[in-house]
Amino acid sequence: MDTTRTFSAAGRRTFGRVPAGLRVAGGLLTLLQIFVGAALILGPAIADDTPGQRAGSIADDKGTDGDVEITYLITGDRRTADVSYQTPHGQESKDGAALPFRVTFRFHREDYTSVQVENLWRNGAGKVMCTVLANGVVVQQSSEFGDNATASCGGSTGEYKPLPGATVPPTTAPSGILPGEVRLTKVVAVKRYGGTGSPVVRRVTDPDAHLSYAELGGAWNDSRRTDPQLDGFSRQQSFDTEPKWQALIASGAVDGDLMDQATGRDRLRVLTSAVQDSRQIYNFDESVRGRDIASQPIKVSGRPGWVIVREMHFDKPGVQAKMDLSAVIVVDTGRVRPSYLWVDLPESHKKLWPDINTMISSLRVA
Question: Which InterPro entries does the UniProt entry name for this protein (predicted)?
């Protein structure tokens, strides 16, 4: 795991507010009187030709104050994109934001709103789309395709009207499968790795995750509490495998941003894959390509859980390892949010891959 990429989604939101070159269209419409005159003359005909479209703006539907709830929705067929947008207090940006991305603000009448999304070159050619909803109604939408595709949406809240024929795009996470990647949808048992691995020195408990598990000795440093807002997990154990690389065991509650995917009969598998995707995005170099090699249900203290083991293939300058073995176990502990245990070991320390089996078998609900 890259020692420089340890921010959680919440941490990235906190520290990722540097603008990324948002191109904001300036000025308001100068032909408003012409349109108003045309509306007075042709209003009945226009209304007949466009059923369901209202003559007034979206702001007119919310009373005299004209406040409008604006939602920026970013979707696409890649996992990530650079996003920048106007807020009531200025501009914000999210570099490498996980898709779909959604954020909502309240704007005053005549405020200017804008959002831009750019596909990341490292993702390869893909589609990006921006959608603006005003009081829940689609009023702006634009999409582009390409290596560096950029889509922009914007306008004045006082002028927003329903966009004929536009629909809210699906907000399920895109597969975002890049060349060389594999995601398992069938059950494949976790391999029993050969060797002795690390000794178990004691058990530790993560009260935030409501999980307990083995603390390992040997090369591993002592297990310790961490700040979940910065690291994305509440307890970790690690050791440096190279100056710029490390092995890691970590646990915590599943990030709330991923909980939209915890639905349906297959929710634990899907959620476990989402946690793996999150670790892949936030803790590895941009060159990483993930290949699932195991995916199976388990029981932890009688509670349902799921394990996915993924090979993280990468090419990072200054790092000898070219692949990490990443195991994520998600457990429905009975709380509002499930919890997870993550074990990551680089190929330079294959002799410790049995530690993955040790950690899975030691896991308990606390």
Answer: MmpS_C
